[in-house]
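=== Structural record ===
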Amino acid sequence: MLSIVPLGCYGSDLENKKCISMLVTPTTVIDTGSIMSSLDTNQLLAIKHVIITHCHFDHIKNLPIFADFMLSLGNHSFTVYTTENIMAQIMDNIFNDLVWPDFTKLPTRKNPTIKFQPIKFDEPFSIEGIEFLPIEVNHVVESLGFIIKKDGETIAYSGDTGICQNFVDHINNDPSIKTICWETSFPNRLEKLATASKHLTPSQLAGELEKINRHCEIHTFHLKPNLEDEIIADIKSIKSPMKIIPMKQKRPITVS
């Protein structure tokens, strides 16, 4: 069974609404926007694989604290999977020994807390029996979406993106995809802002859905938490044969 558990599924933090972190298995998480406030100590220590979609703060917010946590509890290490460009952005701007220590050399260079594993667009990699196909999506910085597979079950995950033909094409070219996690960040009235920041509104999502060549179940995420009610009202107005479900934190998205 393939599933994703949204630890945080919002495009910002507000009250109990948390930034993006998606638990794929007990050892593997996509993005680190909210892992420290969503998991207990034993669950955090179980994480060995961290996939980073891009360098924006809401997606890497807990990465520095998580590295400190792992080091301070006894030289625990984990691997970060991302592109070389995103890795450089994180190292230059976060783990630069100014904003935060360089955990790729702590406690030692031979035994670091963070080990980076570079990945490339359209070259699949596997973690504990799950295949991840990285896809280039349309955001203001280099960003990754994924086609995630396990035992013939498949989930498409958009990451942060605006209108993106490449994501649509990957979905249309893989008939095993029946479940899609698709970002929808702003209400329809803020379409200009969504377009400028390369995110989606419900009306823009509706346009993307019209390009898909079969019916799928759509799970929307990355809603701005202060605008959630308005975005959900706009989502409900979408006229589509597809089932569209706004994500809820801790409610698993399961393909079985």
Observations:
- Residues 2-255 form a domain with the Metallo-beta-lactamase; Chain A fold (CATH 3.60.15.10).
- DSSP finds nine helices and 14 strands in the chain.
- The chain has one domain: 2-255.
- The first helix runs from residue 35 to 38.
